[in-house]
Design goal:
single chain, alpha+beta, OB fold (Dihydrolipoamide Acetyltransferase, E2P), BirA Bifunctional Protein, domain 2, eight-stranded mixed sheet, five-stranded mixed β-barrel, 12 helices, elongated
Length: 434
C-alpha cells in the first residue's frame, strides 16, 4: 500500500494516472450527487470530487456523513485541467467522532484575541489549522536555514545541560527544581557552557529551550522559549555586531526565497533591510525618551513601550548599544569609555522590539572576580568556580549572541505575539495546558 502512495505535492507528475492519497478531510460541500472535499496530507492540499455514480449509493452516503478531520485513503485520477482529483474509491482509516467550534479549518481569524485562549487550550487540535501549519513550516525552514548558515561559518553545534546550579540573572528569575535533594535550576542561558567549549572549537552554538521566571505579560515574553546562543573566539563587540546583522540578513534572504514565498498565510516583514544597521547608544535613547515625556532614569531597563517609541524615530532595525551596568549580567565587559555601561547591544526591530542581544565577554579572571563581587549576584563564589577557572586556562577574548527564536520569527513573519510562534506556549501565570 505504501509503495503506490502519492503525496499531494506530486500530483502534477501523476496526471491522468491512478493515484492513491492518504490524509485528512478538512471541509466538504455536499450536494445530491456530488461532494467537493478539501483534503490535505503533510505535503499540501487538494480538492477531491466524489460522485455518487462512481462510488455507489452506500459509499457516497458514508462519505457524506463524515466529520472534518476524518482520516482517509483515497483512490482516483488527477485532472490537471481542473486541478482536482476524481475519486473512484476510498477507505476510512480513522473517523473523527467529535467536533469543535470554531471548526479547525473554518474561515475564522485564529490569531484574533477573542479566540487566542481557546485555541491555546486546544492547540493539540488547532495545530492542523492551515494558518498555524504555515507558521510552523516557516519556523522549521528558518531553523534549518540558520543551522546551515552557522555550519557554513565553521560553528560547532554544542549541547549544554538543562539542569544547572548557576543562573545568569539570579535565583529569583529562575525555575527551581529538586534534583536528588538539592536545589537546581532550569537553564536560563547556555553561554556558560558554550564558553567552556571555545578553546576546543573557537566557534560554537546551541539551540535549546531556556526558562525565565520573569513577571511579564508582554507580547514578547514566554517563560519557556527556544534560545539560539553562539560564542566566537577572538571577537569584540563590533565584530559580533557585524557577524549577527549579516547573519540575520542572509538567513532572512534565503527564507524569503524559499517556497514559503508562495504561501498566502505567511506575511513576511519587508522592513528587515540590508546591514549595516543604525546604532543608538543607551544614553542617547534615555535623552530622546525623556525629551518626549518618558521618565526613565539612567540605569533602568527599557521596556516594550520605550523600544517601540524609539523604533518610530529610527524607522528601521537598530542596535541599542552600551546597555547599563546596573542591569546587565556579570559576564559582560564594562565599557572602558563609560564605566556605567557595558559592551553590549540589543537589536530592535520596529514594531516588535528587542529580538536578540550581543555582548563582549570578560576573559580575565581579575575582572570577572570584581564583577561577581558586585552585590546584585546572589550566589556564592564557589558555585561558579568551574566557570572562573576557565580564565586560568588560556580562554581568549570572545563575544556571544543570544537570539529569542520566537521573537525573531514573530518579527520575520509579522505575528502579533510570540505565543503564536511556538507550538505550545508557556506564559506568565497561565496554567500549563495542554
Amino acid at each position: 500500500m505504501e509503495s503506490i502512495r502519492t503525496n499531494i505535492v506530486e500530483l502534477r507528475d501523476r496526471a491522468g494516472k491512478e493515484i492513491m492519497l492518504m490524509g485528512w478531510l478538512e471541509k466538504k460541500r455536499a450536494y445530491k450527487s456530488v461532494i467537493f472535499i478539501d483534503f490535505r496530507d503533510g505535503s499540501g492540499s487538494a480538492q477531491l470530487v466524489a460522485k455518487a455514480e462512481l462510488l455507489g449509493k452506500d459509499k457516497f452516503s458514508a462519505l457524506k456523513s463524515l466529520n472534518p478531520e476524518s482520516c482517509l485513503e483515497v483512490t482516483g485520477r488527477y485532472n490537471p485541467d481542473k486541478n482536482e482529483v476524481d475519486m473512484t474509491k476510498f477507505r476510512i482509516i480513522s473517523k473523527s467522532v467529535k467536533t469543535i467550534t470554531p471548526e479547525i479549518n473554518s474561515n475564522f481569524q485564529i490569531f484574533d484575541s477573542k479566540y487566542s485562549d481557546f485555541v491555546s487550550k486546544n492547540k493539540h487540535l488547532y495545530l492542523r489549522n492551515s494558518k498555524l501549519r504555515s507558521v510552523f513550516r516557516a519556523r522549521s525552514v528558518f531553523l534549518d536555514v540558520m543551522n546551515t548558515y552557522l555550519s557554513s561559518k565553521n560553528f560547532v553545534n554544542f549541547e549544554p545541560p538543562m539542569f544547572t546550579n548557576i543562573t545568569l540573572y539570579g535565583a529569583d528569575s529562575a525555575f527551581h527544581i529538586d534534583y536528588y535533594g538539592k536545589t537546581t535550576y532550569l537553564n536560563q542561558c547556555s553561554a556558560f557552557y558554550l564558553e567552556a567549549a571555545i578553546p576546543a572549537f573557537e566557534r560554537v552554538y546551541s539551540l535549546t529551550p531556556s526558562f525565565r521566571r520573569e513577571p511579564s505579560n508582554s507580547k514578547r515574553h514566554l517563560t519557556e522559549y527556544w534560545h539560539l546562543k553562539g560564542e566566537i573566539a577572538f571577537c569584540d563587540l563590533q565584530g559580533i555586531i557585524n557577524f549577527v546583522e549579516n547573519m540575520i540578513y542572509d538567513v532572512n534572504k534565503v527564507v524569503l526565497e524559499s517556497p514559503l514565498k508562495d504561501d498566502p498565510n505567511v506575511k513576511f516583514n519587508t522592513g528587515i533591510g540590508k546591514p549595516p544597521y543604525k546604532t543608538l547608544e543607551y544614553e542617547q535613547a534615555i535623552k530622546k525618551l525623556n525629551s518626549n515625556d518618558y521618565k526613565i532614569e539612567f540605569g533602568k531597563s527599557l521596556g516594550n513601550d520605550e523600544e517601540l517609541f524609539l523604533s518610530k524615530l529610527v524607522k528601521e532595525p537598530f542596535w541599542l548599544r552600551y546597555l547599563p551596568r546596573s542591569v546587565e549580567p556579570f559576564p559582560y565587559r564594562i565599557n572602558p569609555d563609560d564605566k556605567r555601561t557595558t559592551l553590549t547591544a540589543d537589536l530592535v526591530i520596529p514594531g516588535y522590539g528587542e529580538v536578540l542581544g550581543v555582548a563582549e565577554k570578560i576573559f580575565e579572571k581579575e575582572e570577572l572576580d570584581k564583577r561577581m563581587a558586585e552585590d546584585f549576584l546572589p550566589h556564592s563564589k564557589e558555585t561558579y568556580e568551574w566557570y572562573t577557572e576557565l580564565r586560568q586556562f588560556g580562554i581568549p577574548p570572545h563575544s556571544g549572541f543570544g537570539i529569542g527564536v520566537e521573537r525573531l520569527i514573530r518579527a520575520m513573519i509579522s505575528l502579533d505575539h510570540v505565543k503564536f510562534a511556538i507550538p505550545f506556549p508557556r506564559l506568565y501565570k497561565h496554567a500549563v495546558s495542554p
